[in-house]
Amino acid sequence: MDSQKRYSMEAQVMHWNIRYGSIEKCYEKPDGIATLSYLMQVVGCSGIPDNPALSPITEKLSEIKRTGSSVNITPGGNGQSPIDLIDKIARPMRFPPLILNGHWLKDGNATLFNNGVTAQIFLSGDRIPSTVSGGPLMNDEYEFYDAHFLWGEEDCRGAEHTINGTWFSMECHMVHWNRRYLTFDECLKHRDGLCILAYLFLVQSGSCQWNNIKFERISENLKNIQNAGSETKIPSNSLSWMRIATECPSYYTYHGSYNLDDVDNPECAQWIVFPAITPIRHCQVGSIYRLHDCD
């Protein structure tokens, strides 16, 4: 290591030896404290996004200006979503096959709706219910409620979930409700009320000529719902783009929250996040960036 090299900041994570019963007694012992030191370097490049893993801390620093003051950096309860999915701490598990039924059929109707916050997709009409079962869902069957998208201001940082600290361009949530509870609202009251399938998108470079043809059934219709409250009919099989990502051999799953707003996020959802990235071009999400909200 270069002994002359200096860094912008250092974080020290202290651990105390539980053999001594309390941290106070550890201060008196040569093996009482173990400290992990992490060196940080500011990168002066506008093209590199902020480190998402540090955001829960850095965004709260302005609230602890006084010496000895503190602030809670944990949002809500212990099972809030989204999270950073980290392979090093993920636990491999075997589940029965995950079964999706009816999502990409050509029967019935599909509607694309701008609710003032996001773009939603609803399925209706003469079609069998679209369901998900198996996998970590035990013996329950969950019925499709809606699909909605989450994006940011830049192609490199729009998805909610990250994988090993890596951001993605956009994310789609397929929300399903547990049919055992009869209504969607009732599902919000139960730990196993919802199953949410999460799909990650990555915008391809400008030199890439590949186009996600199946996603065009959605992207080509976004111009028709630019204003909040507007809706348009789309092909009934507009969710067929999700099929390839769903067929990946493994996925991440955890219990978390259904994010209604910034205050009340009930921890009622089993999340299934597919790591197979869905590629799209910037022009396919350009209309999403231009959607108007309620304001």
TrEMBL record:
GO MF, any single term: zinc ion binding
Range of residues in the leader sequence: none
Any one cellular-component term (Gene Ontology): cytoplasm
One Pfam family linked to the record: Carb_anhydrase
CDD domains given in the database record: alpha_CA (cd00326)
Domain (Alpha-carbonic anhydrase): residue spans on this chain: 57-295
SMART domains named in the record: Carb_anhydrase
Homology family: Belongs to the alpha-carbonic anhydrase family.
Protein name: Carbonic anhydrase-related protein
Source species taxonomy: Eukaryota, Metazoa, Ecdysozoa, Arthropoda, Hexapoda
